[in-house]
Structures are given as C-alpha cells and as structure tokens.
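Page 37, continued from 36.
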C-alpha cells in the first residue's frame, strides 16, 4: 500500500483502516493491563488472607492450650487441634497453588500477548525475576510456615494418646489422625518437586560422606599415601 493511500493530504487524517487497527491494539493493551492488575490484586488478597489465617490458627491453639494448662481443662480438648490444622493448612496450600497458577498464566499467556502488542520483551517479568532471586531464606520461611500445622497436630495427638479411656475418645482421636494424614498427603502432593530436590540433595550428601569415610579407612589409597 502506497503512502498516499495511508494519509489523506486534504484533511491530514490517517486512513480509516489504520485508525481501526490502532484502536484495536489500544483496546488489547488496556484489556491486558486490566487483567494483569486484577490478577495481581487477587494474589495480594490471597497472600494477606493466608497470613491472617495463620495468625488466627495460632491464636486459637494458644487459647486451647491455655484452657488445658492454666484452667486444668480436659486434655482431650486438644483433639480438636488436628481438625483445625487440617482445615487451615489445606486452605493455605490451595491458596498457594492458586498463586502459582496465576504466575504461570501471566508468564505463559499474558506476557506473549503483551510482547506481541508492544514489541518489547522486557515487560511482565516480575514472576521470572522473583523466581530467580528468591533466596533460601524465603523457601525455608515458606516451608516452616506450612509445617506449623502438621507439627502442632502431631504434638496434640501425641499428648492426648495416654488420656484416651472410652470408645468415643478413640473415635475422636482416630478422626484427628485421619485429618492429619489428609493434611500430610496434601502437603506431599503440593510440594513433591521441592521434596524431591531435598531428598536428592540429602542423598548426594550421604554419598559424599560415605566416600569420605571409605577414603579414611586403613589400607585405602588415602591412608597408604600418608
């Protein structure tokens, strides 16, 4: 198409076909920005709700423990802790999975479209930047935060085990154990990649230690050189 067909020299107006194309690109850009902003807002809301839920759970557990220790309430009241821990822990794990899905959606769906519209591949890089610069302390904090629920549930079940006297007590205790196992299964499924890397790292360390110990034994090459 010639330049004279694009520009109207009489009125200085752009060709209607190009005006429509530019408007379409602007609409797509506005929609991308709006969707990205909405996703980021939902992620922030879920993160804040998860931290609030952890605080509420710890407060309830502290109240129950206070009733049992200070007010000499029935220790079997601790059987409610595994149920609360399973509900709160699974809820937080689901919110974490939703955040990871949102990150993948931005990285795999929105970013290619944004790059195509703008012609610049330096946009929507927060997810990749955060994943590269996420240090070990953040990972330990995240895992420690998730381990609060199964550990507190296991301690509560262990503390109430010697107090079980009736059939109803055993049923309630087994129900709490079932909730704990459900939480552990959900936790293992959610973190199978991280757990696999951790197990692999521990296995490598054990192999290095075993090789070092074999090298230190009398009669080995290292000992004979000395």
């Amino acid at each position: 198409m010639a330049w004279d067909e694009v520009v109207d020299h009489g009125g200085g107006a752009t060709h209607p076909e190009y005006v429509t194309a530019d408007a379409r690109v602007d609409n797509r850009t506005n929609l991308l920005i709006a969707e990205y902003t909405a996703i980021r807002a939902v992620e922030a809301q879920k993160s804040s709700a998860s931290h609030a839920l952890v605080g509420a759970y710890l407060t309830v557990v502290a109240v129950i423990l206070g009733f049992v220790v200070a007010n000499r309430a029935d220790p079997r009241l601790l059987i409610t802790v595994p149920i609360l821990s399973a509900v709160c822990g699974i809820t937080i794990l689901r919110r974490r999975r939703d955040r990871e899905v949102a990150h993948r959606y931005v990285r795999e769906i929105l970013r290619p479209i944004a790059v195509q519209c703008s012609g610049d591949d330096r946009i929507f890089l927060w997810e990749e930047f955060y994943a590269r610069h996420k240090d070990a302390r953040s990972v330990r904090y995240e895992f420690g935060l998730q381990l609060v629920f199964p550990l507190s549930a296991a301690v509560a079940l262990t503390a109430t085990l010697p107090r079980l006297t009736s059939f109803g007590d055993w049923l309630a205790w087994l129900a709490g154990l079932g909730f704990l196992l459900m939480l552990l299964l959900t936790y293992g499924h959610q973190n199978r990649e991280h757990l696999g890397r951790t197990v692999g790292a521990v296995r490598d360390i054990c192999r290095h230690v075993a090789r070092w110990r074999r090298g230190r034994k009398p009669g080995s090459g290292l000992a004979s050189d000395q």
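The chain has one domain: 3-190. Flag for discussion at group meeting. The chain has a mean pLDDT of 78.
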